[in-house]
């Protein structure tokens, strides 16, 4: 779930809590009970699918991390060889571009790492003959080419799979279904405005998405106070 969907789920929970605390009022309208049950079932399904989506994301993240490790292990020997070659030939430009540690490679963003790997490959191909004495073989360059391709493919697969994920689409449909149920409940609440004004105001407050952030902050503050005690 994204932040907005989490906010909506919190709002659904606030509404159901309010209805549960005011059974004496809502019991006068039979549809409240049935729609509350329907909403709870939809919420349970949303949470189940969210766990499933989180698992999908975790799998893709693990694949991406392995591909990144493999790429760094392939590019670092090439960059090191290029740096030593640049020092020997006093090529200041190449020396500056290849002055990099392995830990720095790990800190790079994915796009930066791919650009660095591609640049190293191009430099290595340019100086392939001279670089043999620095341990850069055609096999190393070939491995770098392969790992760059694998890493790029992993990134593209991670993005495209999440965008096209059936789980994502099902979650979207479930939120629409939950909103539809709430829309029906809203109509019933309107009929209670005159007789139960306080309940009506509390319902509107529970339905207000912006209030969910405030409630979250207050809950976190309460938890902090308990810890301090």
What is this structure, in a nutshell?
With 229 residues, the chain is an all-alpha fold. It has 10 helices and no strands. Mean pLDDT is 86; it is low at 216-221.
Polypeptide structure, described:
Helices cover 85% and strands 0% of the residues. The chain is an all-alpha fold and 229 residues long. Residues 216-221 have low confidence and may be disordered.
Strand % is under 5%
Mean pLDDT: 86
The parts where pLDDT drops under 50 for at least 5 residues are 216-221
Rg to the nearest angstrom?
29 Å
Note the gap between the termini: 34 Å
Q: Give the quaternary arrangement of the chains.
A: single chain
Q: Structural class given helices, strands, pairing?
A: mainly alpha
DSSP helix count? Answer: 10
Overall form: rod-shaped
Q: What is the number of E strands?
A: 0
Secondary-structure element string: HHHHHHHHHH
Largest sheet: none
Helix content: over 70%
Annotation keywords:
single chain; 229 residues; mainly alpha; 10 helices
Ordered list of secondary-structure elements with their pairings:
Elements: H1 3-21, H2 23-26, H3 30-89, H4 92-97, H5 102-107, H6 110-126, H7 138-164, H8 166-190, H9 197-207, H10 210-228
Helix pairs in contact: 1-3, 1-9, 1-10, 3-6, 3-7, 3-8, 6-7
């Amino acid at each position: 779930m994204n932040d907005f969907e989490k906010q909506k789920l919190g709002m659904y929970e606030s509404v159901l809590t309010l209805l549960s605390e005011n059974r004496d009022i809502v019991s006068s309208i039979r549809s409240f009970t049935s729609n509350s049950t329907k909403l709870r079932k939809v919420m349970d399904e949303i949470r189940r699918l969210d766990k499933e989506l989180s698992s999908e994301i975790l799998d893709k993240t693990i694949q991406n991390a392995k591909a990144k490790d493999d790429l760094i292990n392939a590019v670092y020997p090439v960059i090191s060889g290029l740096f030593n070659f640049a020092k020997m030939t006093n090529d200041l430009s190449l020396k500056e571009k290849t002055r990099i540690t392995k830990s720095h490679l790990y800190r790079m963003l994915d796009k930066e790492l791919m650009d660095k790997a591609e640049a190293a490959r191009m430099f290595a191909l340019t100086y392939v003959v001279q670089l043999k004495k620095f341990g850069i073989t055609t096999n190393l360059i070939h491995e770098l080419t392969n790992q760059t391709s694998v890493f790029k493919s992993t990134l593209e697969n991670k993005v495209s799979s999440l965008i096209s994920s059936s789980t994502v689409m099902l979650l979207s449909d479930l939120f629409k279904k939950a909103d539809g149920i709430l829309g029906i409940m809203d109509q019933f609440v309107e009929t209670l405005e005159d007789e139960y004004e306080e309940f009506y105001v509390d319902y509107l407050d529970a339905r207000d998405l912006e209030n969910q952030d405030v409630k979250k902050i207050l809950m976190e503050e309460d938890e902090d106070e308990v810890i301090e005690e």
